[in-house]
What we know:
Order of helices and strands: HHHHHEHEHEHHEHHEHH
Number of domains: 1
Oligomer: single chain
Number of helices: 13
Shape: globular
CATH class: Alpha Beta
Helix content: 40-55%
Amino acid sequence: xxxxxxxxxxxxxxxxxxxxxxxxxxxxxxxxxxxxxxxxxxxxxxxxxxxxxxxxxxxxxxxxxxxxxxxxxxxxxxxxxxxxxxxxxxxxxxxxxxxxxxxxxxxxxxxxxxxxxxxxxxxxxxxxxxxxxxxxxxxxxxxxxxxxxxxxxxxxxxxxxxxxxxxxxxxxxxxxxxxxxxxxxxxxxxxxxxxxxxxxxxxxxxxxxxxxxxxxxxxxxxxxxxxxxxxxxxxxxxxxxxxxxxxxxxxxxxxxxxxxxxxxxxxxxxxxxxx
Length: 275
């Protein structure tokens, strides 16, 4: 075995493998939403008509309106009201997203079809905050619950042990409160490092992506012990250096339309496996 092969990181190998799978997943996702012939016809057209930038932006930006200016408690109150409505109406195929701004900003147009989605994301949310408000949707009867949380803890300086313990308690609570639901905990995504333009870049640079990978490995172990599914998104978003790919982000931390399409493809595969 060559020395280069010995030093080739395992996560990089899985990143390559995952991206091959992702390519097939994206094609399948598009194929389900569109006619295959039309898709491949456009793909090989010598002069395809570009999508206007304004149109792409409309697809990526959720219509939050005045919600941008809400404080944390007002956010909680709104999510509580929305959960109460869902609990009363009892829609079929209910799926819940719980987390921070990454979940909050998920464009509804890109969420897998044939599901009723309840978004319980709050911008800037940390593991401790999410743990305290899980009871907001206690009375709902979801088929699945997708959790992504942790990056804001790291930015705020919360230690790894606390983050992981909060994650464990979140999964334990959801499993006990919703025993018939499929609980899916998603890995923490990488950031873009030196290339980030987010206003808190200095805080990101203090968080090596190697630390995030280590947290994710421990999160996988916790998921197995709590008997919930672990969805490893990290390799889909990481470049060769382990940083968030520039084509998937707006500022080195948050996702752009391409990033959400990648995430959507992973969700589609996950929910499809339930059927």
